[in-house]
Write a structure and sequence with these properties.
By secondary structure, the chain is an all-beta fold. It is built from one helix and 28 strands. The protein starts with a helix and ends with a strand.
Length: 359
């Protein structure tokens, strides 16, 4: 429940985007945050990570099928490629081939094949003040940047990338930017690290988990900023935490959020992403395929609920405060890609209840 008319208006104008798969196939889906009635918008073959530029009101997303980054209007129209693939990146692979002979003996021969490889783009984030898009490249273990400013001299999209940080100790999977303190945060396997946006200093350790970190988000309005993250273990145990960071960095104390979810009738077993928005925490999960939200997360009695929309798979989410008018109109077509809510499970303090919705 919001506490003021201003907060209520903000909640009503907020939009939630998810990437995933429904009965209408893979894509990007968007809904009002209040009702979660999703519609599918135009995108690409297999969109994954998604970000937003409020200055130009553009959404950005990655696609592992073609290793590119796209951008479009908020309704998915006017799509264009953002980056030029790095054609100079080539890798030498060894392919083992088995040969069978009549005498029953197998002989193995190593065949070296030079394969053109542009790498897998695993995450993106936007620094709006500097008009910079940061791009994580998993296999090259690096982060690149590209200007998204439409000033004269930048030229049309797609644009060439510039290396921001290279030779990382492990593969980067999630990025989040904090322009207030001037850091880019990287999730790399079981670790969270950060790098100064001005390029100075080495990559700095922030946190080490016992599990693979699957998503990070940040509340940069706090002093010091607060980071939220979720992780996943092979035994189907997912957890989520938050921690405050400071400059200079002096170590962290983490607080677990998932302890409050144990009383839910339906508890997700695999978090895929986390997002902070206006005092609440949102997660996407794959088992079950749903969206969870926690209000008053830093209080003793937070309220939690899990909504299970009609998705077959959910990957990533993005929540934006859209107080401007939509550019263009919603896409039209059969059912508009509508995905209805099926069930919602709630937890308020010590009471648990479940309800269904046909919205």
């Amino acid at each position: 429940m919001t506490g003021s008319n201003t907060e209520a208006a903000t909640e009503q104008s907020a939009k939630i985007y998810v990437t995933g798969k429904s009965s209408n196939g893979r894509g990007i889906f968007v809904a009002d945050l209040q009702n979660l009635a999703f519609i599918k918008i135009p995108s690409s073959l297999n969109p994954r990570r998604i970000s937003y530029d409020s200055k130009e009101m553009k959404i950005y997303w990655t696609d592992p099928s073609d290793k590119l980054v796209y951008r479009a209007d908020m309704n998915g129209t006017n799509r264009e490629e953002v980056i030029t693939p790095d054609d100079n990146d080539r890798s030498l692979y060894v392919k083992n081939i088995l040969y069978f002979f009549n005498n029953g003996i197998f002989f193995k021969k190593n065949v070296f094949i030079d394969i053109h490889y542009t790498g897998k783009v695993t995450s993106i984030t936007i620094a709006e003040q500097s008009r910079t898009l940061y791009i994580a490249h998993k296999h090259q273990r690096k982060v690149t940047s590209v200007s998204i400013d439409n000033v004269e001299g930048n030229g049309p999209f797609p644009r060439n990338q510039t290396d921001f940080v290279t030779d990382l100790s492990s593969k980067p999977t999630s990025l989040e930017v904090d322009e207030t303190e001037g850091f880019l945060y990287l999730a790399m396997g079981r670790f969270i690290k950060r790098k100064s946006l001005n390029g100075d200093n080495d990559v700095e350790d922030v946190y080490g988990s016992s599990s693979r970190i699957t998503g990070i988000s940040i509340d940069a309005s706090r002093n010091p900023p607060r980071i939220f993250f979720c992780d996943y273990k092979e035994d189907n145990i997912s957890r989520s935490f938050y921690m405050d960071t400071a400059t200079p960095f002096k170590g962290v104390n983490v607080t677990e959020l998932t302890t409050h979810l144990h009383d839910l009738e339906l508890r997700p077993e695999k978090w895929t992403d986390v997002a902070y928005f206006k005092g609440s925490i949102y997660w996407t999960s794959r088992d079950p395929t749903g969206i969870a939200v926690m209000n008053n997360y830093d209080q003793d009695d937070p309220s939690c609920n899990i909504t299970v929309p009609g998705f077959r798979k959910l990957n990533r989410l993005l929540i934006i405060d859209n107080q401007k008018s939509w550019p263009g109109s919603w896409p039209t077509g059969s059912n508009n890609g509508q995905t209805s809510l099926s069930q919602s499970y709630a937890y308020e303090g010590d009471s648990t209840n479940s309800s269904s919705s046909d919205d």
